[in-house]
Amino acid sequence: MTDRAPPRSTARPADLLLRSTRVVTPERTRPASVAVRDGRIARVLPYDAPVPAGVRCEDLGDDVLLPGLVDTHVHINDPGRAHWEGFWTATRAAAAGGVTALVDMPLNSLPPTTGTAALRVKREAARTRIHVDVGFWGGALPGNRDELRALHDAGVFGFKCFLSPSGVDEFPALDEEQLARSLAVVAGFGGLLIVHAEDPRELADAPARGGAAYADFLASRPRAAENGAVALLIAEARRLHARVHVLHLSSSDALGPLAAARRAGVRITAETCPHYLTLTAEEVPDGATEFKCCPPIREAANQDALWRALADGTVDCVVSDHSPSPAELKTADFATAWGGISSLQLGLPAIWTAARARGHTLDDLARWMAGAPARLAGLGRKGVIAAGRDADFAVLDPDATLTVDASALQHRHPVTAYAGRTLHGVVRSTWLRGQRIYADGEFTGPRGRLLSRS
Ligand SMILES: [Zn+2]
To answer: N or C: which end of the chain has fewer CB within 10 A?
Structure first.
């Protein structure tokens, strides 16, 4: 017998109940009430579960309760190029887009995140200015193999490298031998290497005319460059039994080898991005460098194959590769304009608009944009609506439409490839650890936390 009362938090079933006729759970979308306690999902209850006394109930009606999206490919550029994009603006765009956790890429900020001192600088820059949770990828450069283990221990989620020029001088690419050596180091401590996969020899051999014609730009970044790099990564992942992730896959020719490698047990995964799935080369106007990214947006037939690969699981996730720059760097010349498309706020409606037209469901969307990216990065508390996870949600009206007005978006510069498009799916509110951080255009103060690999 004991004279101690049970702890108060055990007696209290929830702080909050979120009720919707459409809750997207890992099993299926169904009517349910989600009980939240101390920022976590306590239980997923039947729709008509009684509301305990003293518990606030938010009835969302027919709006969809999605897990907060997880975007593992974001370039925030802060500090150093914060005039391109910064933590405050990027994470507001994330919150407005239903994204509750993101992982920042190691390049474009100064310093790049290629050592533990730089990681500390990044964390300090972010700490008080983030509206959603933020973690960091490290960078693998030709000269920093000795830093990788310390960065891993300091909590980065993995290491990014390039095989071709990155676009910024301070982040050089690895050659094949350096790739093999860095991958061996990363595999040695069970880490993950994430790779911008374009083969520099194929890029050097491609015609490079420059200028305003999109067809010329597309010819300068051929599928062969991606195909060759993916083949190399498959071979190295197999040889070293290492975990490798292909970033922003665009070439559908690489899908067959990727699928075969995965069937054979090679530890390789892949992502693609909203722009490859919703925009086509055929429709890019000449001089419209808001559509420039590397690898490039390809033809409609290529896009159809990417959708099939998402459906069959060859491609795991859809993440933004949000990479803004000031408008003046988006010159009309595709060869020299900054490459990067800003879609942190628009990925959800862009993908949902195309996905529903192709017969995909909200369950698919949640898997591609929340569950799979969380699994990729090892974010065990994020990505699905289930007991024990963080109470991170996006509340979506999937039938409402919005017409994209670049100047109304939250990221730093009003440049977007989606300007003027009418999209389905309006994010009504976004919740982070049980608190509503965004609703109908209004934000709370920054409540994001820094994330580390656990
Ligand atoms: Zn990127």
So the answer is: N
38, two tokens: 């101390």
Residue (of 294, 199, 187) closest to 249 by Cα position = 294
Residue 222's nearest CA partner among 254, 191, 189, 246 is: 254
Whole-number Å distance, alpha carbon 372 to ligand 1 midpoint, is 18
Over residues 125-165, the pLDDT tens digits come to: 999 999 999 999 999 999 999 999 999 999 999 999 999 99
Ligand 1 centroid to 291 CA: how many Å? Answer: 14
Question: What tens digit of pLDDT does each residue of 164-196 get?
Answer: 999 899 999 999 999 999 999 999 999 999 999
Closest alpha carbon to 26 in 375, 340, 319: 375
Report CA(375)–ligand 1 centroid distance (Å). 19
Concatenating the DSSP letter of every residue in 49-67 gives: ----TT-EEEE-TTSEEEE
Measured in angstroms, how far is the CA atom of residue 160 from the centroid of ligand 1? 9
What pLDDT score was predicted for residue 11?
A: 59
Considering only the top CATH level, what class is 8-62?
mainly beta
| 417 CA distance to ligand 1 middle (Å) | 16
CA of 247 to the centre of ligand 1 (A): 8
Tokens 């991170």 belong to 392
Please list the alpha-helical segments (H only) found in 97-222.
116-126, 148-153, 176-188, 200-205, 214-220
Distance from the alpha carbon of residue 22 to the mean position of ligand 1, in angstroms: 33
Whether 8-62 and 68-380+402-421 share one fold: the answer is no
What is the value of pTM for the model shown? 0.96
133 backbone dihedrals φ, ψ, rounded to 5°: -75, 140
Burial class (CB in 10 A: 0-12, 13-18, 19+), 173: middle
Query: Closest Cα partner for 43 from 434, 366, 385, 371?
Result: 385
Mean pLDDT of 96-116: 96
Q: How far is the CA of 322 from the centre of ligand 1 (A)?
A: 7
Q: How far is the CA of 128 from the centre of ligand 1 (A)?
A: 24
76-85, 263-272, 285-294, 416-425: the lowest-pLDDT one: 76-85
* Domain 68-380+402-421 grouped into CATH 3.40.220.10: no
